[in-house]
Amino acid sequence: MPIIEMHMLVGRSVEKKRKAVAAMTAALVETLEIKPETVRILITEHTEEHFAVAGVTVGARENVSAVPLT
Amino acid sequence: MPIIEMHMLVGRSVEKKRKAVAAMTAALVETLEIKPETVRILITEHTEEHFAVAGVTVGARENVSAVPLT
Amino acid sequence: MPIIEMHMLVGRSVEKKRKAVAAMTAALVETLEIKPETVRILITEHTEEHFAVAGVTVGARENVSAVPLT
Amino acid sequence: MPIIEMHMLVGRSVEKKRKAVAAMTAALVETLEIKPETVRILITEHTEEHFAVAGVTVGARENVSAVPLT
Amino acid sequence: MPIIEMHMLVGRSVEKKRKAVAAMTAALVETLEIKPETVRILITEHTEEHFAVAGVTVGARENVSAVPLT
Amino acid sequence: MPIIEMHMLVGRSVEKKRKAVAAMTAALVETLEIKPETVRILITEHTEEHFAVAGVTVGARENVSAVPLT
């Protein structure tokens, strides 16, 4: 541990995801004072119809007035 | 928050899933007295070989006597 | 299925949580056209130090300028 | 309950996964003294770019010196 | 991997939980032909108010007609 | 999104956890080129009996020969 599950929208490049897991791991190694090999990260990507804020999926948002997408 | 992860079998239409996240969000807004934009829902769909009840995947069930699929 | 994991901050009453799971289940039964007994909901509550938005835990936010807490 | 989420790398056969969920369920039935139909297992498979140890995805590891892949 | 998240009701003894994780791990080692040290299991226990079937928490069920608790 | 679930052993100070979520968020903001307020982190802590490697809980490990605790 730590074991990290990261949920995000599909569409990012392999390169960006590799940088993200490297940077997150470095952040945990430094702040929690742990060894890198104790950090595991699992990524799950969700399509635009599989993430909703305020009851509206991202895929449906374009047709809807905008709540900031966070 | 709340942040909701919803696991279900693949195969439902976009329309049904949009209705489901809208209705779940409305249910939480009313019962927890929160604002809609605080509700996030992540859907993860599983194939019939990736959900098992009583040690038998849904995909294998058709060849097996029926435990009610819940 | 569906199987729902609901993450929220600690501090809501049993009564409110019972109403929330009943209402969410009813929402899914109606929109997905499923039987109520197929719906399972797991609640995980998080303390104010165990939920962060924009890199700041809820517990630390009071000392910080406000990003809307969603 | 129990409800089990199993994360693993993609690439195993249906046959192996069916055996795995059957064996895990039997293990829980025996050790927890529960009925098989109370055990639900959800499998989520991750690609080699979606699992990282020590900040390096499995897909990137082949180009890197080896930390044991556990 | 595999990484397992096991959700269950509170109340089981340490001894039973130790047996359960040992037996599940052995089941995976045998069926997936993997080394034991690749298997990680995370247990999350839920109180009776934090698990609901059919819209009713386990804690509320005693006052309600019985849907089989699975 | 991203929405991050971080599982770790109990026992770290509030200060360390605040630093960890701040550093992880900064890491994601930089590598994924996103706004900080889109990053949500949920921490779940597990006791020594609720995390097992190789079929042995951390709590039971002291009595057992050591597999490296990662």
What would the keywords be for this entry?
2 helices; homohexamer; Macrophage Migration Inhibitory Factor; two-stranded parallel sheet; two-stranded antiparallel sheet; about 35% helix; about 70 residues
Largest sheet of chain A: 2 strands, parallel
Pick out the low-confidence regions of chain A: none
What number is the mean pLDDT of chain A?
92
Number of domains of chain A: 1
In the CATH classification, which architecture of chain A applies? 2-Layer Sandwich
Compute the number of helices of chain A: 2
Summarize the structure.
Six copies of one chain form a homohexamer. Chain A has two helices and four strands; from the N terminus they run E-H-E-E-E-H.
Describe this structure as you would to a colleague.
Six copies of one chain form a homohexamer. Chain A is of the alpha+beta class and 70 residues long. The first copy, chain A, has a single domain (3-61), classed as Macrophage Migration Inhibitory Factor, CATH 3.30.429.10. Chain A has helices spanning 14-32, 58-61; strands at 3-9, 40-46, 51-53, 56-57. In chain A, strand 3 and strand 4 form a beta hairpin. The longest helix of chain A is centred in the first third of the chain and has 19 residues, at 14-32. Chains in contact: A-B, A-D, A-E, A-F, B-C, B-D, B-F, C-D, C-E, C-F, D-E, E-F. Chain D binds chain E through residues 1-9, 12, 16, 19-20, 22-24, 26-28, 30-33, 35, 37-38, 46, 51, 69-70, and chain E through 1-9, 12, 16, 19-20, 22-24, 26-28, 30-33, 35, 37-38, 46, 51, 69-70.
